[in-house]
Specification:
10-stranded mixed beta sheet, binds pyridoxal-5'-phosphate
């Protein structure tokens, strides 16, 4: 147990397995592993090292400082910074050989002039907003943008990319339309230039659901970590992904209380019968959010126990009346498997009223992580 009462375990063996599965699914396309937000809570550097050993040669991060840390950790290969760079971090971009996503003319000119000043060149990926309604330039502006890019020194077009907002939704029509628009835009750009850049648009949902949309390179995030971007998949291969993260703690107090006993702040739960409660050293400071109050379940002695009363900053209470012999020191699984039972990130996401991505970031980035191979 050492000095941490609860722990996140990261199973790198499962990460490797998921990476190999994705390889099979993507065939000849390249893989850009998305490791932003500390690899969705799994730890960016150990995840990148593991994936590099698996042959992954491109990594996606949000900000320049993440790319700098990857280089300091001896990660080679392409590192693509999704949010671009501000002036002050351009020297890091050049020193570390990072590639930048671009989405504006002024931004492009700034990169060009700083890179020229340092006698260098920066690879850029043009982001096209094909229907995400977020970052990127309009498809109509893309051909001219590329023409002006080709006139500039200090920059070269490493990629052209876009992003899907609804590839997880089997009823959405937009994904096919977006893809067609992206391909048409690539063709228009290609007509006027000597295009040798890579095209990429597919996130995990599109990788799994739309094999025809993989383009030159795919950008998996959530699937690497063993979760699905959609509720369930009928695709047999997709069932084989293994969740990489588990979250466990242990019981620090057990107590027998009468019926009518008020549990935790606000007395939001009152026992209906004489009950046995167990107290856990976990709370919203650990990313186990207060919205889980009176909703979540955990595993102890291989059985499901309901959470009771408000989740506090560092404590939460569970009802173990129906589970024989629970004692101080017993392992409690908040996310992951124990015995025959399993609590998934999706289930917690349902209780928290969010998506599995947020659960992984919250638990992974707010607890001490331990790595198993
Ligand atoms: C986060 C992100 C991804 C990964 O999406 P998943 O749904 O986790 O596979 C891909 N592309 C971009 C631009 C992203 O920001």
């Amino acid at each position: 147990m050492a000095s941490h009462m609860s722990r996140v375990d990261i199973n790198l063996g499962s990460l490797r397995k998921n990476c190999r599965l994705l390889r099979k699914i993507i065939g000849n396309a390249d893989m850009l592993a998305v490791i932003k937000s500390d690899a969705y809570g799994h730890g960016m550097v150990p995840v990148a090292k593991c994936l590099a050993e698996e042959g992954v040669q491109a990594f996606g991060v949000a900000e320049v400082h993440e790319g700098v840390l990857l280089r300091q950790s001896d990660i080679a290969g392409d590192i693509i910074v999704f949010l671009g760079a501000d002036k002050n971090s351009m020297s890091d971009v050049i020193r570390c050989g990072l590639e930048l996503v671009v989405f504006g003319t002024e931004q492009l000119q700034e990169i060009s002039s700083i890179a020229c000043g340092l006698d260098s060149r920066v690879g850029v990926h043009l982001k096209i907003d094909s229907g995400m309604g977020r970052l990127g330039i309009s498809p109509d502006d893309a051909p001219d943008f590329v023409k002006s890019l080709e006139q500039l020194k200090g920059v070269y077009l490493a990629g052209i990319m876009s992003h899907f907002p609804q590839a997880d939704d089997p009823h959405a029509q937009i994904t096919e339309k977006q893809y067609d628009l992206f391909i048409q835009t690539l063709e228009k750009i290609g007509r006027g230039s000597s295009l040798s850049s890579v095209s990429h648009i597919a996130n995990s949902a599109a990788i799994l659901r739309f094999p025809q949309m993989h383009c030159d390179m795919v950008r998996p995030g959530i699937s690497l970590y063993g979760c699905y971007p959609f509720v369930s998949s009928l695709d047999a291969i997709a069932q084989e992904f293994e969740s990489v993260m588990t979250y466990t703690t242990h019981v620090i107090q057990v107590k027998d209380v009468p019926a009518g006993f008020a549990v935790s702040y606000g007395g939001t739960y009152i026992t209906e019968r004489p009950s046995r409660l167990a107290v856990l050293p976990v709370g919203y400071n650990n990313g186990y959010l207060r919205s889980l109050s009176n909703r979540a379940q955990v595993l102890v002695r291989g059985k499901r126990a309901p959470q009771r009363g408000r989740v506090c900053m560092n404590l939460t209470i569970i009802d173990v009346t129906d589970i024989e012999g629970v004692s101080v020191g017993d392992e409690v699984v908040l996310m992951g498997g124990q015995g025959e039972n399993q609590i998934t990130a999706d289930e917690i996401a349902g209780w928290m009223n969010t998506i599995n991505y947020e659960v992984l970031c919250l638990l992974g980035n707010n607890n001490k992580r331990f790595y198993n191979s």
